[in-house]
Specification:
63 helices; 8-stranded mixed beta sheet; single chain; 6-stranded antiparallel beta sheet; alpha+beta
């Protein structure tokens, strides 16, 4: 606004003629448009005129009000202008205007006025007082009465004058709390804004108002002599809130903060804090704000000491702690209040922890003690007046926080005396009904124990090596310890202090058995159990022989023996007591348990087993299942009790939990071998007069196990699998026993066979694996029961047929189960001694091949009836009969056939059916049947071969693959067998190489002709007269005319004896030796006669109806004979006869001469054979595929790590450095397999070096189906320069299964030799009883396997075999979880199938046969091929066209191009033929 306009506005203001209203309006208009400086200048320069305008205008408003005309806006305008006037002019004492202003303000501050009027009046009053050196009495009176305390619960202000004189703008309602608080906030804001006069104003506020709000502390501080009338007992909540808001603003103003925290004023702030902490929970935000405000003032060491000084800060801290503890005692109601209370208490506790953690080094002993006692007393007071059973979850959270903070603070305090600890124990013991106390005690105890373990249990432990390798990890730990609270972790612990604190806190609750609340007692006992487990694990970190810092038996046994006898209400805690006792005693340890402790322990277990409560029995079984595999002396006194309860377990109507059933079976498996090694004394029973001997125990064990196997409550597959492996174990033990029980064996086998029919595939496969493991002992099994093997094989074969039929019906075939059946049968047949060629086994053979038929085709078929006949040339040809698709009753025909004849014919028939699609639709089942058929054909009664156990197939030789000329021909037979023919070193010798899913087999073949040695051998087997030649003088006429002589011959020869040549010659001049032989044959073998009326030695009597025709024919023959005789007689005699020369053997012109003869002799060039026999394109790609096929071993290969642990060895380095072996370990390894020389071993090496850098020998084991090599670290050379023995770990660390022989006395940790590939550990612990405990540790992802199960106890005579079988099964179980791994048979079958689809050559039969006769060399083939293709190299897409066009070429070109697809591969840049 311009100066001209401003001056114009003031024109009326200075005009004496203008009305009061215009003058005032002119002034306000100017003030609104001018700047602050201009306003101040005008008012000060024309102070009197301005005041006159304001006062006169106020008088006009007052007169209008008296007349009943209320103009509030005009009044507010006058009061606002008055406020600015006072602010600008700062009236000094003695100014005549001050009294008038006081009168105006008195009228404005009337309680009956509207709040806005009073607010403007109060602002003007504060400005007026602030301008005075010392406020007048009138001003103080107005100041004291300005804030109406009556709405806040205070006394009403005294009245002055009449209502009509004082009320300027009457309010329609009585004054409210909000209006009073607004004026209080206005006052505090005014005081805060005036920094220079803050001290004056703060004293005035203290004297006039704070003395009303906080009268007691003001009297104590001398602010007032006594409590003023109308004082509050406690500051109004609204005033408290507003005050805290303003105190928060003062934090960042050091001058103000220092003023209010002076020694004579600080108590007032503490009182404000104390009353704020007692506000209702509806003001939770204010309470929290107050704590934070005072925390910012007092708990920041950088500012608090400067603020109040070091001498006073401790006192203020104690006051602060005492005040905030009041929040804990606040009563709260369920709902939002309780939630707010929990939040506030957590804030308080965080403050306490802040003192203990961050200020612990700065607070003095008195503050520490107050901190501890205040927290303890507050918690005790709060919880003593409450019931733990009336609280909800929020309250539980609250009590958890209280007890947690209490324990943390007390543990951290460095000044706690014995009397204070006793005080803590006394008060805490009165609160044991609170579950939170037990929960937090358990948590703190576990944390302290973990710290103690890390600090004290370090003797003999190597934490980290220089290369960072962890040598003492706790990967076997099952219970996770809670994270250590930072407050505990940062305490500077010493061993003595930690040990003392641990024992104090362990006993802070007294004897846990005195806790009567069942849930709380359970928590206390669970804490004891966790502590014991933690320290037991920690003891393994100590060096062998080092006494543990915490003697667990001495500390905990008194509580535990008392715990197993508490009342029924606390049964859960009692059960925990049993579990903890078992954990204490039944564990591997190098320290002997005192015999008096053992006596109490056995008595407790015996009492628990006889208690009659199933839960107690279950707990004992769950935690004492390995009692009898432990080294506790005298544990046999409990055998009867355990077996009694296990027997009851598997006869009860209510099935126990699956884990209990598993533990019961573990107990049985640990006792099965015990009777054979039982001491002479008998075992105690319930009847002292009838003890149990070894044979009775043996009977009871088998009875209980067989009863468990038939128990109807076995619903869990894992339990059934465990029973399966226990049955197998029982069979093995029985067979090894001198007095084997046949009835037990039969029952076990029957139960195993029943398990093979389970609907659950896991159970079925486990049963089949178990039966397969018995194949190695079938010789012993047959000695006990000759028919058990045949029954087993017949049952499994029938199972396959039923499974295929059922799967075909429901269109969901169980391929895994059927495959396992085939593998089991194959194991028994290949490993065993069942003679399928024996005619007595024809029914079994029928069932087996019927199962194969159903696997291959899904139905039963008639085999091709192939008859082998001998031809004159010595070749063998096959003639096929008709084939019928389905034959309902084929078993009768099969049974009637000779066993060996049936096996051979049916096997050939089934191979011819391989190209068919099975009706069941499962490729996996068909492949399993095909593999079974191949493996049987190759390995049945053929293992070990003449090459030994290490070889079942020909060594892979690239000779017939890398031969790039045309000397090798490859064929595929039935799409599943690849064979090749090539000329060997000798010209007449053929090398025949066959490849199928089982491996590669090479033969060298050449034709054999009958020589004198062979003739003599045959003469000894057949009557010599048969091979005598007829004399040259005999002729047809003579034989036919000497009938009488023949009759005479018949009369003189005895028909029961083969006539000799000399005897026949004595009968006449022309004896017929053929008649003598025929006479012998018809008498000895009448079944070969053509009919009943025809005999070999009698002339045939023709039918009279055509006798004339015969006579006529004879006459014609006689005439012909006479003419020939006459012609010969008329010829002139010849003096010299032409001698016939002996022909020489021709030189073969074909490269495939011998191969052609082989194919021809074996009937493979017939038209029928062409349905199954095809050529393969011999090109570079084919040869690469063949090389890949030869890389796949025909047997399953497995490598197993052998780890020997000496006494005292716990780390990887010392174990890998072992080179010596104990006698027991050496005997065990010897039983796993036989030693092989790695330099000459032709079998599976498992990564070991033939140059013997990994040792000179290794244990090796093989069957026709599998090869196993053992990586024994004691046989590998130890490197002195490599402490980690990387070259050993490279082999053992990559093995899936580790067999660990542990003589250390402590449990072997599977993580000792760290590797991500070690999935299974079979750990063997020698026992003092000359038995061996087996522990199986496997990753969770590994399926179950057997025959050994965790906790079994085995004798040495069975241990190697069972461990080897278990290691093989474990490898297979791990591999079954991989989507990549496939068995070698399946891999080879798939690769052969792929080769067949890619390289099979569909040539015409003429081309195929013609190629075998062609004499062309490979160079001529290339030239002819180039000519036939017009000089162009054939492309991939042209191969089929070239093959189809070859038949129309000329004879010469056609012969040369018969193998274009293979010849083209030899040309430069030739592509492979397309897959067919």
């Amino acid at each position: 606004m311009s100066s001209a306009k401003k001056n114009k506005k003031l024109k009326n203001f200075f005009s004496s003629k203008a009305t009061v209203s215009k003058r005032f309006k002119s002034l306000t208009s100017y003030l609104e448009g001018a700047t602050e400086e201009e306003c101040i200048s005008v008012i000060k320069e024309h102070e009197d005129i301005a005041f006159s305008a304001i006062s006169e205008r106020f008088a006009e408003c007052e007169n209008a009000i008296k007349k009943g005309k209320h103009h509030t806006a005009d009044l507010l305008s006058v009061l606002s202008t008055l406020k600015r006037f006072v602010d600008y002019t700062q009236p000094q004492p003695g100014n005549k205007k001050v009294p008038y202003i006081e009168r105006i303000l008195e009228k404005c501050l009337s309680p009956q006025n509207k709040h806005v009027v009073r607010e403007l009046g109060f602002a003007s009053l504060l400005l007026l007082i602030g301008s005075q050196t010392e406020p007048t009495a009138a001003q103080l009176t107005l100041f004291r009465a300005a804030i109406l305390l009556e709405p806040l619960g205070g006394a009403a202000p005294p009245k002055s004058g009449t209502a009509e004189d004082l009320v300027l703008c009457p309010s329609l309602s009585a004054p409210t709390k909000e209006e009073a608080v607004a004026l209080w906030v206005q006052l505090l804001d005014f005081v805060t804004a005036h920094k220079k006069a803050f001290c004056t104003w703060y004293r005035l506020v203290q004297r006039e108002y704070l003395s009303l709000f906080y009268p007691d502390i003001c009297v104590q501080l001398g602010i007032c002599k006594s409590a003023r009338p109308g004082s509050f007992k406690t500051c109004p909540m609204e005033i408290q809130r507003a005050t805290i808001d303003r105190l928060e603003l003062w934090i960042d103003r050091p001058a103000i903060s220092k003023e209010v925290w002076k020694e004579d004023r600080a108590p007032l702030l503490i009182e404000i804090l104390r009353q704020a902490m007692q506000l209702p929970l509806t003001c939770a935000d204010t309470i929290s704000q107050t704590m934070n405000v005072y925390r910012a003032w007092l708990l920041n060491p950088a500012t608090s000491l400067e603020l109040v000084g070091e001498d006073r800060i401790q006192s203020l801290w104690r006051s602060y702690l005492s005040c905030i503890s009041l929040i804990i005692l606040t009563n709260s109601k369920p709902g939002e209040e309780l939630q707010a209370h929990v939040t506030l208490v957590n804030d308080v506790l965080s403050m306490y922890l802040l003192f203990a953690n961050d200020l612990g080094d700065e607070i003095d002993d008195e503050t520490w003690m107050l901190l501890q006692r205040k927290l303890l007393d507050t918690i005790h007071e709060l919880l003593s007046r409450s019931s733990p059973f009336d609280l909800n979850q929020l309250a539980t959270t609250l009590t958890d926080a209280l007890f947690h903070s209490l324990f943390i603070v007390w543990i951290q305090s460095p000044v706690t005396t014995d009397e204070m600890w006793q005080e803590l124990r006394e008060k805490v013991c009165t609160l044991v009904e609170w579950k939170s106390l037990l929960v937090q005690w358990k948590d703190i105890m576990l944390q302290i124990s973990q710290i103690l373990v890390e600090l004290i249990y370090t003797s003999g432990v190597r934490k980290k090596t220089a290369d960072g390798e962890s040598l003492a990890d706790d990967t076997m730990l099952e219970t996770e310890v809670a994270l250590i609270h930072p407050s505990l972790a940062t305490i500077p612990w010493t061993e003595s202090r930690l040990h003392s604190i641990w024992f104090i806190f362990l006993n802070v609750l007294g004897n846990p058995n005195s806790i009567t609340v069942p849930d709380n007692y359970t928590v206390a006992m669970s804490c004891v159990g966790d502590l014991i487990e933690l320290f037991q694990r920690a003891e393994y970190r100590l060096a062998v022989g080092t006494p543990p810092p915490i003697p667990l038996l001495d500390v905990f046994l008194p509580w535990l023996f008392e715990a197993v006898n508490v009342d029924e209400r606390r049964n859960r805690g009692r059960l925990l007591g049993y579990a903890i006792l078992c954990r204490l005693f039944i564990r591997p340890s190098s320290r002997q348990v005192p015999i008096e402790y053992l006596a109490h322990f056995f008595r407790a277990l015996k009492s628990g087993l006889g208690f009659g409560h199933s839960s107690c029995v279950w707990v004992i079984l769950r935690h004492a299942a390995n009692l009898f595999s432990s080294c506790l002396p005298g544990n046999e006194v409990l055998i009867h009790d355990f077996l009694r309860e296990i027997d009851n377990l598997f006869t009860s109507k209510t099935a126990p939990p699956a884990d209990i059933q598993l533990k019961a079976l573990q107990v049985i498996s640990s006792l099965i071998t015990y009777p054979q090694h039982m001491k002479p004394q008998d075992l105690p029973t319930d009847n002292p007069e009838k003890p149990m001997d070894a044979e009775q125990l043996r009977t009871q064990l088998s009875t209980v196990l067989l009863k468990a196997a038939s128990y109807p409550g076995l619903a869990n597959p894992l339990v059934k699998e465990a029973i399966v492996w226990n049955l197998v174990f029982l069979v093995q033990v029985e067979l090894a026993s001198p007095s084997c029980r046949k009835e037990v064996l039969v029952s076990c086998v029957q139960l195993l066979l029943e398990s093979c029919s389970e609907e659950n595939n896991l159970i079925t496969c486990a049963a089949l694996d178990a039966l397969a493991s018995l194949a190695l002992v079938q010789e012993e099994l047959v000695k006990e029961d000759a028919g058990v093997v045949k029954f087993l094989l017949a049952t499994l074969s029938n199972n396959i047929v039923q499974l295929v039929q059922k799967g075909r019906e429901i269109k969901d075939i169980r391929s895994d189960t059927i495959t396992a059946h085939y593998q089991c049968i194959l194991q028994w047949l290949v490993v065993g001694r069942v003679d399928l060629t024996n005619a007595t086994n024809s029914p079994l053979v029928s069932k087996i091949f019927r199962a194969v038929e159903f696997g291959l085709l899904g139905e039963e078929v008639v085999p091709r009836s192939t008859m082998m006949v001998s031809t004159a040339g010595g070749s063998v040809r096959a003639a096929s009969s008709k084939k019928v698709a389905v034959r309902p009753h084929a078993s009768m025909t099969r049974t009637a056939m000779k066993g060996k004849e049936y096996v051979n014919q049916h096997a050939r028939s089934l191979f011819s059916q391989l190209y068919k699609m099975p009706s069941h639709g499962s490729d996996d089942v068909q492949e399993a049947a095909y593999i079974f058929l191949c493996a049987m054909s190759q390995h049945y009664h053929n293992f070990p071969s003449t090459a030994g156990c290490s070889q079942v197939a020909t060594w892979t030789s690239p000779k017939d693959v890398d031969n790039t000329d045309d000397r090798t021909k490859f064929f595929i037979y039935h799409g599943s067998i690849i064979f090749s023919l090539s000329t060997a070193d000798s010209a007449d010798t053929l090398r025949f190489t066959c490849r199928d899913c089982t491996g590669k087999y090479t033969w060298e073949v050449k034709p054999l002709w009958l020589d004198e040695t062979d003739r003599k051998a045959l003469s000894e087997a057949v009557p010599s007269e048969v091979f005598s030649t007829v004399p040259a003088s005999s002729n047809v006429v003579a034989r036919n005319s000497s009938i009488s002589a023949q009759i005479n011959y018949d009369e003189q020869v005895s028909l029961g004896v083969v006539p000799s040549h000399e005897k026949i010659r004595s009968f006449g001049e022309n004896p017929d030796m053929g008649h003598a032989v025929l006479n012998f044959l018809q008498e000895k073998h009448p079944q070969i006669l053509p009919s009943e009326r025809i005999f070999f030695d009698r002339p045939f009597q023709p039918n009279p109806s055509y006798a004339s025709a015969i006579d006529e024919t004879l006459k014609l023959l006689q005439n012909q004979n006479e003419r020939e005789t006459a012609y010969a007689a008329a010829r002139p005699p010849i003096s010299v006869f032409a001698m016939a020369g002996m022909p020489k053997q021709p030189t073969p012109k074909s490269e495939f001469h011998v191969a052609r003869l082989f194919l021809s002799h074996f009937g493979l060039l017939s038209e029928d054979a062409r349905q199954s026999l095809f050529c393969l394109d011999n090109n570079a790609r084919f040869r690469r595929s063949l090389k890949e096929l030869d890389k796949v071993n025909g047997r399953e290969t497995i490598k197993v790590g052998l780890v020997y642990v000496k006494p005292g060895q716990e780390d990887q380095r010392s174990i890998l450095a072992n080179e010596e072996r104990s006698p027991k370990y050496a005997a065990f390894v010897k039983g796993l397999g036989w030693d092989v020389d790695l330099g000459t071993h032709p079998g599976f090496m498992g990564g070991l070096d033939r140059k013997k850098t990994t040792g000179a020998s290794a244990p090796y084991y093989s069957t026709a189906m599998v090869e196993v090599i053992f990586h024994d670290i004691t046989r590998m050379p130890t490197s002195d320069s490599d402490p980690q023995q990387i070259h050993k770990k490279r082999h053992v660390g990559n093995d899936i299964v580790h067999i660990v022989w542990n003589e250390h006395g402590r449990p072997y940790r599977p993580s000792t030799i760290s590797s991500q590939f070690n999935n299974v550990h079979i750990i063997i612990d020698p026992l003092p009883t000359e038995l061996y405990e087996v522990r199986i540790v496997a990753k969770e992802s590994v399926p179950t396997f057997g025959p050994l199960q965790n906790g079994m106890v085995v004798s040495m005579d069975l241990l190697p075999q069972l461990v080897r079988q278990t290691a093989i099964a474990a490898n297979r179980a791990v591999r079954s979880t991989s989507d990549v791994y496939k068995p070698p048979y399946s891999v080879r079958a798939a690769q052969i199938k792929e080769i067949n689809s890619r390289y099979k050559n569909h040539k015409f039969f003429e081309e195929f046969v013609g190629e075998l006769f062609r004499p062309l060399k490979p160079s001529a083939i290339v030239e002819a091929t180039a000519a036939a293709s017009y000089g162009n190299t054939p492309r991939d897409g042209d191969a089929q066209q070239q093959q189809s066009s070859s038949s129309s070429s000329s004879a010469k070109v056609g012969a040369a191009t018969a193998d274009q697809s293979s010849s083209a591969e030899d040309l430069p840049n030739a592509a492979a033929p397309p897959a067919q």
